[in-house]
Amino acid sequence: MSSRLDKSNIRVSVVVPVFNHESFIDEAILSVLNQNHPIYELIAIDDGSSDRSLNRLKAWSGVDGRVKVFTQQNRGASATINRGLHIAKGEWIAILNSDDSWSPNRISTLLKVALSTSSNVLFSECLPIDSLGKELEKSHYWQKMYAKLLRQVYDLGLRNALFRGNPVISTSNFLMHRNALERVGLLRHRRFVADWDWSLRAVLQAGVKHHWWAEPLFNYRLHENNTIHQSGLRSSLEIAHMFSRMQLCHPETVALLEHSRRSFVRDIRKHSERSAYARGQSDADYRNLTERQQAKSYIFLLESTLNQERDLAERVLGELKLERDEARDAKHQSDRERDVALANLAKSLNAASLDRERELSKLRSGYEQQILKLETILVQERELSARVRHELEKERDEARDSRREIYEAREADIKDLSRALEDAESQRKLELASVREGYESQFKLMESEIAIERKDSERVRQALQVERDEARSLNIKLNLQLQSLAAELRLARESVEYERSRRIFSRLKHLVRRLKI
Which of 27-47 are b and which e, b meaning 16 or more Cβ less than 10 Å from the residue's Cβ? Predict the structure, then answer.
């Protein structure tokens, strides 16, 4: 159902059974058409009325197209309502008897409650009125009876109250969703208690959620032609039969239903006693004698029906007990099988645990051997790295010494050449003045060569310095990598991770190759 009340898409059909209520039919139809929530259709079915009820219905159908009129021969209220339920097309369906009426906000109020509580069958309190539409006096016997029914609803809840009486009062109090109608079913053909029977079935039906609204939203009219005034012995017989049938359909409520059935059987006996008292009266009391005879036939029929239903109930209870015993035995068997399965599972788990421990022990020993091998290889690689580092340092020192010797030799040669040039210049200055320029140019050429040699020597010295720095940084990186590999080996030894150890071993080999290069 929608989470909010949308009057444009919630369609409500109203079924109005009509039988000889020309005095009240206008008020009933007007109360439907004046609802705050728009009515989708009003299905009025005339059940063979002998007054002018049908003429009033036809007049209303000409005024409002929502009023649809159907006729039939007299079949009774239940059959008439069931026909209307079949015809109705709305999502929600309500029933209003032609002598009752609704408050203008009945449908809108109950729909709001339905949407907020997810209910699909709703009832409300009623306002008892007389034939003129006035509320009954509080001292009226019917008001007292209804007040008692309401107290039971609010003290015990609607479900338990329906085991003691009928606070729903009338089918005019029904508002049902179509899915609830499909679950509960149509009205049963009972003359006096069809509304009580359907209400009780609804509150006991799985998948049906009912709600009682504590506000009078429909007017229940009491007049001389009410069916309630024609009840009595036959009404008690129907009620007793209703509770007997409910016991078969709902075994879980047998105790409550049996208590209610017995109370109405006592009413039947009281009626029978009153009929028996009339046995010694005059011939003018012939109707009481007829009623007594009818009561005897009804009681005989009821007792035979009750005996059959009691036998059926006993068979059902026996079958239920047998099924319960079988279910208990099956449960015990399943418990034993479960215990055996758990024991086997425990054994399997223990065996698996032992196998796992053995496998872990094998893996642990294998990992320890691999770690020892890796440690040995690491020590060897460290020694090799130390030798390589020592050789690099030795080569670096040798290169430094060689560069120093070359530089000193070049400096000595330059000094010797300078002295020789100076001597030659002094000796030849006097003798070879004419060729001074040649010597000077030669001297300048030699000086440029010496400068070039000096620059070359400086570049060599700088290159050696760069190589020395690179060797130092390479040594630092190798030490860091060796420390990292040693830490990873320790982690591998603790966590026993074979794959990680294999990768570390591979990286060690790669490092050794780099060191060799």
Answer: bbbebbeebebebbbbbbbbb
Pairing type for strands 101-102 and 210-221 reads antiparallel
Instruction: Answer positive or negative: Cα dihedral of 426, 427, 430, 432.
Output: negative
Q: Map residue 219 onto helix, strand or coil.
A: strand
Decide: 123 and 173 in contact? Cβ < 8 Å: yes
Task: Give me the amino acid identity at 264.
Answer: F
Q: According to the model, what pLDDT value does residue 330 have?
A: 77
Query: Which string of DSSP letters, residue by residue, matches 286-311?
Result: HHHHHHHHHHHHHHHHHHHHHHHHHH
* Span 250-259, pLDDT tens digits: 665 544 555 5
Distance CA(509)–CA(495), nearest Å, equals: 22
Q: Which CATH superfamily is domain 7-223 in?
A: Spore Coat Polysaccharide Biosynthesis Protein SpsA; Chain A (3.90.550.10)
Per-residue pLDDT averaged across 33-49, rounded?
A: 95
Report the distance separating Cα 156 and Cα 360, nearest Å. 68
Domain borders along the chain are 7-223, 370-516
Residues 322 and 315: beta-carbon distance below 8 Å: no
